Amino acid sequence: MFAHDTEDTGSSDLWVISDACKSCSKAVQLYPQATFNSVGLDASLLYGDSQTGTHANGLIGDDTVNLAGLTLQKQFFAAINDTNTSVEDTGSAGIFGLGFPVNSVIWANLFLEERKTGVQYERRDLPSTDFSRPAFPDVSKLYNTFTSHLRRARFPDVAGLYSHSQSKHKTRQTVSQSSAFSQAVASSYTRTAPLLSRLVSTKSLASPQFAVTLQRDTVDVGGNNGLLSIGELPSGVANNSLTWVPLRRYSEDEGGFPAPPDSPSEVYPITWEVFVDDVYLDGVKLARSTLSSSDIALSALLDTGNSLVRGPSDVVQAISDRIGSTFPCDEPHTLAFQIGGQMFPVDPRDFITQTYQNNVDSCTANLVATDPPQKGQYLYSWSLGDPFLKSVVAAFYYGNLTYPSVDPPRMGFLSTVPSDAGDQLKAAVSFAKSSGGTFPAEVEPAPSGTRTSAPTDSKGNMASRTDIAPWILLLVFSAVLTTTSM
Prior knowledge:
alpha+beta; 33% strand; globular; 16% helix; ten-stranded mixed beta sheet
């Protein structure tokens, strides 16, 4: 069975809508739940922020997953039977989360069940590859379940997770308990981690990374070629052409994983979040938000699952006050983010959307407010969605998942905005006015992607590269024991 899934760097879970969803559209091909190997656990997945929260609920299980020719047997995912997400509107039947395991509800539920029962899910052997704002993760729950005497109520909004605890004080874990927890986490990654994290943890890729470019589908169709490149950078993009910056990592006190005893200084990332030097509008630096603590360093989430740019409400309001809630479509504005000392502007053609149908005189910004950061939760102020990602080549480097100090996680950016982007916007508006008064909108079906082999590296690991269309990824699901796809 073939299912198109939307790629999402803001979450970590893989799921598809099953034919058990009675309220779901039949316009997309639904996953046949009868072929699903359920493990008897539920998944309740949350997306967005307090303004745009959506959900997807279903069963956790495994099946064989084929990603453009790269086959993973017994990969865990969720068969969804209830959702209010809009993935069906894009022709998709689910979401392909590209984040870290710690952000995976499916991985967390499987991990907790293993800790509860003491029985590991069957070790999943990977084939040779020589051919081939979700809810903040409750790390303390994972740790407290493994060492039940440790009491760290990090997230008051999920106090029910700690209802078994009567103590208000944190107790010190023993070295043996901490070591056992770290080993259990690392071991689980090779068996129950999300798809890409599992490939990374088993060293099945020549490089533990993927890269994304998105194509402009309206205003002035074109720009970057849309692709997802797994295991290496896109063809023609050199590593030293990108500006590389470290990810924000969360200490244990900030809600992150505890460091293992054999490497007590380890601090782990939670999501694809990078530090931002400053934000500029039309070349003028914007004042920082006053809605969050000044000692929280400015940062941004890079999220392909977000169709807008989201920022602090006071800064978003300041931008609106300066350019207007609506403004002429042929009036170029540039919102730019300084990252790693380099400026990365949003192309003026991606910054706007027409206010009224069949009228390109008035536009609004693809910019809305989001929740401010707070300690004990996510610490990013900005969520840089598709308008930003259409303007760059973005590389997502996992590094070493268990010992990030050995190979630090990071992101690389290369701006693809032309110097005359403002003039090209004016030309696009002029053309739209003479062609019916509306901007074009094109959505192309996703191809199956291609796979190319890479030579063996110094450690004997092989690479597998997959180039796939933007937004929608073609995934092939087959029943666990079948020899032909359904």
